[in-house]
Write a structure and sequence with these properties.
Length: 510
């Protein structure tokens, strides 16, 4: 066992050489919230056959200090980066469990060098806010007045495993008694999770999602829904396993992970079908299932076209005719935009996004009124009948139309540009896409969810701009390099380093 000290923080870790003499890659094992490095003991012997292993205790867990900062996901990501840098790990795969996996999600979304794939086990990439707050409150009640999370461990120890044993329960309980409620609930709250899906969208390395078939807290349906947000992701359900997959089924888990990594190395994880196919498949699948459930599907009915633009100001058209009135009332504009971007949405999700400041019952009442108003706006009247493009079920809300949007089209174009192999074609496409760059993309939307969408696009602009900067600097085209570096500087996190680079390039122009 070893540790790394950084400022007032000590991080406990373990490095293990692979049993395979010519092993090149390392797997980084990140345990779940409340646990420690020993939660991986059952899986280590199998993983070690093919990989070097680095596992560590999250801050405030096991033998690692809590540090002085609040346990945000950014801070956990920084701890992981520190370990990778200090241990000089250059080629690696991340295997993250539970909420600990979010540090891997954050790192992967920022395109960390050396990361080859991401495996997420029982990681709640999206969790309804109101339900999440309820779970948080229940867990807080379990440890009121306590110095450790041992009481919560007592509640969870039987359900965390498919077949609990005394040894498994001891490992869990021994970890939970070392974690304070302050550390635990700094991390265990919905605000830390709200950017999970948007981060997932930005990841370009292959992703494997693993769920335990018997996991009641984070069931397989929770992970499989995430496949809609990244075409590089695959989801497998591990039989006879609950939340602690690595202890219930260590051999099956490690074999599946190894097969996944091998396929990635050999095939470079190319998709047989393009995004058009996958998007169409998802949309049509949801439409047909809902039609069967409602018994209202009518193949003879004409398809209505709904065009919703929002990148340069909001406007909506049904079958080519613009809807001019009613958008400034009852969050109609915001609800429609969200439904365009999120084709499968629940009422609870809409309450989380648009009325987070009120209790669930009040939010549901407001949503009911707003949906009624939006439904009237999205109505097609013909001589034969009246057709509503907005369908409101008991739990789900969705649009029944052929939906198009400038933002959807733009995001798809960006994704396709990233996949271009020709440098010339990629350069031309990046330059075309960056012509859309402006200070206020998606104007008029101020909810956090839309701000996350804006941030996601701005991150794409920064990445594309830096690609062009590198290209033009190699070609000694300083003028173009400066132009695109100024764009990157607006949106990139490392503004200080980019400013230094800009100053150097402008000095060459003088």
């Amino acid at each position: 066992m070893a540790s790394i000290k950084h400022d007032l923080l000590t991080i406990h870790y373990e490095w293990m050489e692979s049993d395979k003499p010519d092993a090149e890659d390392t797997v980084i094992l990140i345990h779940g919230l409340g646990l420690d490095i020993y939660s991986w003991d059952y899986a280590v012997p199998y993983l070690r056959k093919n990989y070097h292993i680095m596992r560590y205790d999250l801050r405030g867990h096991g033998a690692s200090d809590a540090g002085s900062g609040v346990g945000t996901m950014n801070l956990l990501r920084d701890d992981l980066l520190l370990l990778l840098t200090e241990l000089d790990i250059k080629s690696y795969h991340i295997i993250g469990h539970g909420l600990g996996g979010f540090s891997g999600v954050y790192l992967a979304s920022e395109k960390a060098p050396g990361l080859k794939s991401l495996v997420l086990m029982s990681v709640p990439l999206h969790y309804p806010k109101n339900l999440g707050n309820k779970v948080t409150d229940e867990r807080k009640k379990a440890v009121i007045g306590q110095q450790t999370m041992i009481n919560l461990g007592e509640q969870l120890k039987n359900n965390a495993f498919h077949l609990p044993t005394e040894e498994k329960k001891y490992i869990l309980m021994n970890a939970f008694k070392k974690v304070s409620p302050a550390v635990y609930f700094d991390i265990f709250h919905i605000d830390n999770l709200k950017s999970g899906i948007e981060r997932l969208r930005q990841i370009t390395v292959p992703i494997l999602l693993l769920s335990g078939a018997e996991d009641a807290m984070f069931p397989p349906e929770l992970s499989s829904a995430s496949l809609n947000f990244n075409t590089n992701a695959r989801h497998y359900t591990v039989p006879d396993a609950s939340f602690m997959i690595q202890m219930d089924q260590p051999q099956v888990m490690t074999q599946w992970i190894h097969n996944f990594i091998q396929k990635n190395d050999q095939d470079k994880w190319t998709n047989t079908y393009d995004d058009n196919y996958q998007e169409s498949l998802t949309a049509e699948m949801y439409t047909e299932i809902r039609g069967i459930l409602q018994k209202t599907q009518n193949s003879a009915s004409p398809v209505n076209n709904l065009q919703v633009n929002m990148m340069n100001g909001f406007n909506a058209h049904i079958n080519g005719e613009r809807i001019l009135k009613g958008w400034g009332q009852r969050k109609a504009k915001q609800l429609l935009a969200y439904l365009v971007l999120q084709p499968s949405t629940t009422r609870e999700e809409l309450c989380d996004v648009f009325w987070p400041e009120v209790d669930l019952e009040t939010a549901k009442n407001r949503l009911r009124v707003s949906l009624h108003h939006l439904k009237q706006l999205l109505t097609v009247n013909t001589t034969e009948k009246k057709t509503h493009l907005l369908v409101t079920e008991r739990e789900h809300v969705f649009l029944q139309a052929k939906v198009q949007s400038d933002l959807l089209h733009y995001r798809k174009a960006v994704k396709m540009a990233h996949r271009l192999e020709s440098i010339t074609e990629k350069t031309d496409e990046y330059k075309r896409l960056l012509r859309e760059e402006k200070e206020n993309i998606i104007p008029g939307f101020f909810e956090d969810w839309f701000l996350d969408q804006r941030t996601g696009i701005e991150n794409e602009w920064a990445d594309m701009a830096l690609f062009l900067v590198d290209l033009y600097e190699k070609q000694n085209d300083v003028q173009n390099a400066v132009h695109y570096l100024k764009i990157a500087l607006k949106y990139h996190n490392d503004a200080y380093t980019l400013q230094e680079r800009l100053d150097r390039l402008e000095g060459r122009m003088a």
